[in-house]
Structures are given as structure tokens and as C-alpha cells.
Amino acid sequence: MGNFDNKWTMVDRYITELLLPPDPVLEETLQANKAAGLPSIDVAPNQGKFLYLLVQIRGARRILG
Questions:
Q1: Residue 45 lies in a domain
Q2: Which one of 1, 20, 21, 56 has the fewest CB atoms closer than 10 angstroms to its CB?
Q3: Confidence class of residue 28 from pLDDT cuts 50, 70 and 90?
């Protein structure tokens, strides 16, 4: 199973590096969350982008509630 996991890691890294340039606002927000002692429950940037695309495709007006 280790080789399979490594391939997913490589694909994940490729997508992140190709499609998601560094985002200073995101980095600042993550640092502020950490400094405030908030739990680290953030999704990875590529996962967040995917969730954003799903919301846009669905035309959702609300996410929570």
C-alpha cells in the first residue's frame, strides 16, 4: 500500500504546485489562527479549491445551515 500512497502524494503535490500558487493571505490567516490557539482543522489549499468548485457548480447560496 505504501507505493500507492506515494503516488497519491506525488499527484497531490503536482496539482498543488501547478494550479495553486502561494497565497500570502492564506498563509497570514493560517498563522493568525495558530497564534490564536485555534485547532488545526484546515483543509489543504487544493482541497479547498476543489470544494469551492463543487459549490460553484452546484450554485449553492449557503454552505452551513
A1: yes
A2: 1
A3: very high
CA–CA gap between residue 42 and residue 32 (Å, rounded): 13
pTM for this entry: 0.59
SS (H, E, C) the chain: CHHHHHHHHHHHHHHHHHHCCCCHHHHHHHHHHHHCCCCCCCCCHHHHHHHHHHHHHHCCCCCCC
Specify the number of domains making up the chain.
1
Domain housing 9:
2-58
- Does residue 14 form part of some domain? yes
Whether 31 is covered by a domain: the verdict is: yes
